[in-house]
Design a protein that fits this description.
The chain is an alpha/beta fold. Helices cover 37% and strands 24% of the residues. It has seven helices and eight strands. The strands form two sheets. It has a four-stranded antiparallel beta sheet, covered by helices on one side. It has a four-stranded parallel beta sheet with strand order 3-8-7-6. A hairpin with a 2-residue loop joins strand 4 and strand 5 (68-69). Helix 3 (95-105) crosses helix 4 (110-123). The protein is globular, with a radius of gyration of 17 Å. The two termini are 20 Å apart. Magnesium ion binds at residues 45-46, 161.
Length: 203
């Protein structure tokens, strides 16, 4: 049973001065679907994803999640999981506290936080590293923590912007398989950005 939400992007446009970063983008992603945006560098992939997340304010168009217009909502009210290259982990917190952060922001009870953090630590195969400092993790492990933090509050949509871009080939292929498994397991709707044609096809 998919528990993901549908995404409807209608006529989305964003300009930066003379540069039109995205021009009249329309896209529908069905509940629980995995859609990859593939394009050259500078083609507007990140701008599109940032607009869906609420970090970029579009000049035109609309975004609906589960049929509700979210175009005017701030990011925290959209309740979407995001894994962006520039959306860094907190280096002064350990793995557990990084992943717990979204739940603490939402003022969940500590027992519930414990349960949910354990659940996503298992999901990304990091159960033994919960006390580890972020600075003591490999790049691949850090991306697993970022993924767990994005999923810990059970968002209906997961947005990923080149999440594996900094990893070597073998690790990238391993994590691609895991991301696909997690998508099947959770039924979350995924919008995934990459400039790598091979990665787009395999996802
Ligand atoms: P992609 O992610 O596909 O590489 P981007 O969405 O980052 O593309 O960028 C699309 C275009 O918008 C590029 O020409 C880029 O230089 C421009 N752009 C993106 N963000 C900004 C910004 N904050 N200020 C000015 N120009 C920007
Ligand atoms: Mg980009």
């Amino acid at each position: 049973m998919p528990r993901g939400a549908a995404i409807e992007i209608q006529g989305l446009t964003k300009r930066y001065g003379d540069v039109t970063a995205i021009d009249d983008v329309s896209l529908t992603v069905a509940e629980g679907e995995f859609v990859t945006l593939l394009g050259l560098s500078g083609s507007g992939k990140s701008t599109t994803l940032m607009a869906v997340a609420g970090f970029v304010d579009p000049d035109g168009g609309s975004i609906a999640i589960s049929g509700s217009d979210v175009t005017a909502l701030p990011p925290e009210k959209r309740n979407l999981g995001v894994v962006f290259q520039n959306y860094a982990l907190f280096p002064h917190l350990n793995v557990f506290d990084n992943i717990a952060f979204p739940l603490r922001m939402r003022r969940h009870a500590e027992s519930e936080i414990e349960t949910q953090v354990r659940r996503v630590l298992d999901l990304v195969s990091l159960r033994d590293l919960s006390a580890r400092r972020i600075t003591e993790l490999s790049g691949g492990q850090q991306q697993r923590v970022a993924l767990a933090r994005a999923l810990v509050f059970s968002p209906p949509v997961l947005l990923m912007d080149e999440p594996l871009g900094a990893l070597d080939r073998q690790l990238r292929e391993q994590l691609q398989i895991e991301i696909r498994r997690i998508h099947r397991q959770l039924g979350v709707t995924v919008l995934y950005v990459t400039h790598d044609q091979e990665e787009a096809l395999s996802m």
